[in-house]
Amino acid sequence: MNFILRGKIVTPTEVLEDNALVIQGDKIYHILENDVFQKFADDFSKNYKIIEFDNDKYICPGLIDIHTHGAIGKDFMNSNIDDNKDIANFYLKNGVTSFVATTMTNPKENILKAIIAAKEYSKLNIASSELIGIHVEGPYINKEEPIFYGAQNPIYIKEMNIKEIDEFIEAGEGLIRRITVAPEGTPGSSEIIRYLVKNNVIVSIGHSNSNFEEAKEAFDAGLNLITHLYNASGTWHHRATGIIGAALLDKRVYCETICDGHHVHPSAIEMTYIVKTPEKMITITDSTSGAGMADGEEFDLGGQRATVNEGVCRLVKDGMLAGSALTLNKALYNVNNWIDISLPQLVNTATLNPAILFGLDKEIGSIEKGKKADIAVFDGNFIAEMVIKKGEILYKK
Ligand SMILES: [Zn+2]
Hints:
This protein has 397 residues and is an alpha/beta fold. It has two domains: 3-59 and 367-396, Urease, subunit C, domain 1 (Roll), CATH 2.30.40; 61-357, TIM Barrel. It is built from 13 helices and 22 strands. The protein has helices spanning 34-39, 41-47, 81-93, 108-123, 146-149, 162-172, 189-198, 212-220, 242-249, 266-276, 328-338, 343-348, 352-357, and strands spanning 3-10, 15-24, 27-32, 49-52, 57-61, 63-68, 70-71, 74-75, 96-103, 130-137, 176-181, 202-205, 225-226, 254-258, 281-284, 298-301, 304-309, 312-315, 321-324, 375-379, 384-389, 392-396. Strands 1, 2, 3, 4, 5, 20, 21 and 22 form an eight-stranded mixed beta sheet that branches. Strands 6-9-10-11-12-13-14-15 form an eight-stranded parallel beta sheet. The chain has a four-stranded antiparallel beta sheet with strand order 16-17-18-19, with no helix packed on it. Helix 3 (81-93) packs across helix 4 and helix 8 crosses helix 9 (242-249). The radius of gyration is 21 Å and the shape is globular. The protein starts with a strand and ends with a strand. The structure holds zinc ion (ZN). Residues 67, 69, 102, 137, 286, 323 line the site of zinc ion. Zinc ion binds at residues 67, 69, 102, 137, 286, 323.
């Protein structure tokens, strides 16, 4: 089906008023100004289905979540194909057209099982939000204290091990695109980082107590992302700025943040946008099964019990923040209310910026001629009105 969306279009640099987005097959074919569209309106109406949106709607690129563990009571660590389908459909309804399934610190066999389930799901090419990669979060992280390992289970934390990582990469058949590590825990970690980067894996520093110099060394080896900046990132002190100071200062490094208002104070988010610039910011959810669940319900988080209350997920045993109950469109809504940046800059943090980081920006991440027609139409509160994946309307409010 070929169609034309009429209304406000959010490109990487501006909001185009009253334009026409021409979708042909699975691709964005053209963006036309109103007068051009009007000139050929009769012809268009014969060959295209024309969908008009009011002035309070925004035609945006589909969102990309590069850090999520699951939703609606289902977690990638213990999911099957049907569960993965349900999770993907939940993302889709929230405007997310691509996601990176994230594993937890667990015994190797469990991580392998999760990788295989995600790969099998991906091979089915189901019309829904698309699994574009797997993020292995742990077990190669810091096990010293809860402020570093957070809600990851310290029993299974270990040093980086190329042989084991290779098993993950092999099992994923190209889907392992990201690993979160604490470089300080492994002698010679820079060599391993170089090896992973060469193998098309994005290496991210997180759940780590590296000092500034160790973090810099990892950046020089090709590590270019910090996992949920500020959470499980140690502390920033003016004589010991650690991974936070290193990541904030280094222009090569992207910062992802959980913008639910519980993990990081809005003022810290605002400060970070100023220091890093919006181009280096990535909005994520780090959502767990708790996303989309009712208050008081319990769920499993990598073998530990957690519960969701008023939008906050915590471990039952000690109350530690346990991922989020956030959706990515809600995260954008929050940032939009907290800080003063343009709508394109804000949307880029959950579309173009992650696409560039993952080397997918020729295909997805923005509304530009020739890219895949992955589109989310939002109202002013970032509630999804319509979601299109590869030129197919898969969701309508
Ligand atoms: Zn996570």
